[in-house]
Amino acid sequence: MTISYFAAADGTRLAHRTNDRTGDRAEGRTERVGDPVVCVPGGPTDSRYLGDLGGLSARRRLVLLDPRGTGDSAVPEDPASYRCDRVVGDVEALRVHLGLDRIDLLGHSGGANVAVTYAARYPHRVRRLALITPGTAAVGITISGETRRAAALLRKDEPWFPAAFCALEALIEGRGGDWDAIAPFLRGRWDDAARRHHADARPANAEAVAGFAAEGAFDPESTRAALAAVEAPVLVLAGEYDLNSPPGPVSRLAALFPDAVFAVQPGAGHYPWIDDPEPFAATVGDFLS
User: Fold this and answer.
1) Contact, 115 vs 39, CB < 8 A?
2) Which of 68, 159, 199, 224 has the fewest Cβ atoms within 10 Å of its own Cβ atom?
3) Quick one: CA torsion of 84, 7, 51, 276, rounded to 10 degrees?
4) CB neighbour burial string for 210-240, b if at least 16 within 10 angstroms, e if fewer
């Protein structure tokens, strides 16, 4: 992938990674892969953890945004600009930089809050919208402790379950707890590859994480009203085992759009392109095409 830079509205230097071309090595040819898909990671953290999205890069040109203050993007002068509603302006600046009238937009986890808010603010700029194991704060959908417990109990036969469930109970009950200890609940399988990916996906900028959901970041009532007028097709994809974004609450997000498809990837957690790449790339690739 190549790294390119552009300026946000406030002058902050932002970066994106792009798989511009793929080669046919057998014939020595190089061909452009599809139209671009602008991808917004969660965290906020840099986009490297998205990888090639389970091979989606073989079908579409991925434009992976490093949110401000992460990866190769600069730290902004104003920490208040980490707020989700203000990061939406960075996506619009990227669209202008790419010279596109409309974009296919993909948001993962917390990045889905940015993508949803962008669609509400700029509906005429969105061609297709893919929300992958999405966060739901932007539309005011909360996830109860009981819902998370029910999702966790689907994994009760896993060898790591007792310790992870104990940590989850502590977090739900407000007794502290170790967020890393519940990481297995976010994965379809908890093996060495998942452990490495978990370490790579952890946000490094605590100020960006704290500022993302600061007061004023979300206006659920107006966002929900605006989404009712979004004409673009929408894919909302949940993972069967995802403790962060369980299928039940995520399905309620899909219901806010006039033209949405809701899908659950069996056996997947919060990172479905890692748990089972082929069905993920097929589902998302077919939708975007």
Assistant:
1) no
2) 159
3) 40
4) ebbbeeebbbeeebbebbeebebbbbbbbbb
Q: How many Å apart are CA 99 and CA 91, to the nearest integer?
A: 13
Q: Which residue has the higher pLDDT, 23 or 164?
A: 164
Q: Which amino acid is at 134?
A: P
Hey, which residues does 63 pair with through a beta bridge?
18, 38
Q: What pLDDT does 33 receive?
A: 64
CA dist., res. 168 & res. 279, Å (int)? 29
pLDDT at 25: 33
Q: What count of Cα atoms within 13 Å lies in the side-chain half-sphere of residue 198?
A: 20
Dihedral of CA atoms 162, 246, 178, 138 in degrees, nearest 10, equals -170
> pTM of whole model > 0.70?
yes
> What is the distance between the alpha carbons of residues 123 and 137, in angstroms, rounded to a whole number?
19
Q: Using alpha carbons only, give the angle 49, 208, 217 rounded to the nearest 5 degrees.
A: 110
CB-CB contact of 184 with 190 (8 Å):
yes
